[in-house]
Amino acid sequence: MNAVIELLKQHRSIRKFRPDAIEQETLNTLIEAGQCAATSSFIQACTVIQVDNPTLRTELAECAGNQAYVASAPRFLVFCADMRRHQLACEMHGAEMQSGYTEQFLTASLDCALFAQNVAVAAESMGLGLVYIGGLRNQIERVSDLLQLPELVYPVFGLCLGFPDQDPETKPRLPLNVVLKQDRYDDTQDHDAIKAYDEQVLEYYRTRTGGTKEMTWSGQISEMLVKEARPHMLPYLQSRGFLKQ
Ligand SMILES: Cc1cc2nc3c(=O)[nH]c(=O)nc-3n(C[C@H](O)[C@H](O)[C@H](O)COP(=O)(O)O)c2cc1C
After folding, report:
1. Closest residue (by CA) to atom 3 of ligand 1?
2. What single-letter DSSP state applies at residue 113?
3. Nearest Cα to 27, choosing from 51, 44, 5, 8?
4. How far apart are CA 193 and CA 187, in angstroms?
5. Mean pLDDT score, 201-206
6. Mutation pick for ligand 1 pocket among 10, 11, 13 (CB with most ligand atoms within 8 Å)
7. In CATH terms, is domain 3-169+229-239 a member of 3.40.50.300?
8. How far is the CA of 129 from the centre of ligand 1 (A)?
9. Span 139-169, pLDDT tens digits
10. How many angstroms separate the CA atoms of 136 and 138, rounded?
11. b/e map of 77-97 (b: 16 or more CB within 10 Å)?
12. Which residue of 17, 32, 46, 156 shows the fewest CB atoms closer than 10 Å?
């Protein structure tokens, strides 16, 4: 163990923030830490939009299914997968970019996730708390219009940042043998391991909610994955120039 691993193991999402401001200089440092993440083929395909305008924040909170902390958190960032400046780079060399490949969608989205997680860890190292906001994709067209996103740019998720005004427990993760396999994919132990893990999650929710939420991990997943998952995403992404081939 070392200080970095200790910090990573203490992660928990924060959804209630103190009003204390995060200075622009601090935010810039976090973004620079994000930029240091590895990036597929050096494409650097992540653009962050810092949203300060309160009206815009309220509208984005609505887009995310009325998640109030999107409007109230001291800072709100939108991480966008961005293949637009690559078009410019090609133009600078008289080349015509071939866009729309699934591979490009994947690498740009991965770049965003790695960038954001660097920002998240850097923020936590400074005592800040955060929660990712995938809910923005509920109304992704409206989010794109509000932020005036051009073709080849899409908002992957948001991130609320601020000093924590709550201290929730860390949420237990799956047992190591479920996520770490040796030499081949062997899931013969997974059923029993997940059953044991379900007990742990049940206990976590009982403690955290004073007994009002009784939920296992597999129960939660089985409720979620029988519903459709934002089916508007494919036509949306295609309309923005992604996932065409
Ligand atoms: C890409 C992504 C999107 C998420 N979207 C939301 C969201 O819209 N609202 C929210 O309250 N939490 C959101 N979360 C937080 C997860 O619910 C949370 O990370 C997960 O339940 C594990 O809890 P923990 O972060 O406290 O360990 C998101 C997390 C990720 C990685």
Report:
1. 134
2. H
3. 51
4. 10
5. 96
6. 13
7. no
8. 12
9. 999 999 999 999 999 999 999 999 999 999 9
10. 5
11. bbbbbbbbebbeeeeeeeeee
12. 32
- The predicted structure's pLDDT at residue 123: 99
Q: How far is the CA of 135 from the centre of ligand 1 (A)?
A: 9
Average pLDDT over every residue of 46-50: 98
Task: Give me the mean pLDDT over the 203-216 stretch.
Answer: 92
Structure tokens at 203: 């206990």
Domain extent listing, the chain:
3-169+229-239, 176-214
**Ligand 1 atom closest to Cα of 156?**
1
| Core vs surface per residue 129-148: b (16+ CB within 10 A) or e | bbbbbebbbbbbeebbebbe
Q: Which atom of ligand 1 is nearest to the CA of 64?
A: 8
Report d(CA 213, CA 190) in Å as an integer: 25
Identify the pLDDT of residue 14. 98
Angle at 231 between CA 142 and CA 235, to 5 degrees: 65
Where does residue 17 rank: exposed (0-12), middle (13-18), buried (19+ CB within 10 A)?
Answer: buried
The verdict on the CB of residue 19 being under 6 Å from ligand 1 is: no
Distance between Cα 133 and ligand 1 center (Å): 7
* Beta carbons within 10 angstroms of residue 52's beta carbon: 9
130 CA to centre of ligand 1 in angstroms? 9
Report residue 192's pLDDT band, with 50, 70 and 90 as the boundaries.
very high
pLDDT band at 86 (very low <50, low <70, confident <90, very high): very high
